[in-house]
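Hello, quick one for you while I still have it in my head. Could you read through the record and tell me how the C-alpha cells relate to the sequence? No rush at all, and the record is pasted right below.
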Amino acid sequence: MSASQFNAGRAHGEGQEKADQMMNTACDKAGDVSQASRETAEQAGGFMQQAGEKVSGMARDATESVKNTIGLGNEKTTTTTTARQTRAAKK
C-alpha cells in the first residue's frame, strides 16, 4: 500500500467519524427541541384549561346573579351583586 492510499484511507475514516459525530449532535438537538415543544404544548394546554374554567365560573356567577335579580335563583347562592341588591332593598 502506498503512502497516498494510506492517507486517503485515513482521511476517509476521519471524515466518517466527524460525520457520525455531527449526526449524533444533530439528533441530540432534535430530541431537545422535540422535548421543549412537548413541554410548551403542555403548559399552553394547562393555561387554556385554567382560562376556560375561569370564564365558565364567571358565566355561571353571572347567570346566578341574573336569576337572583329576577327572583328565579337558588336562595343559597349569593353573589356580591345579589348581596348589594338585598342590602339596598332593606334600606
User: Anything to note?
Assistant: The CA atoms of residues 78 and 84 lie 10 Å apart.
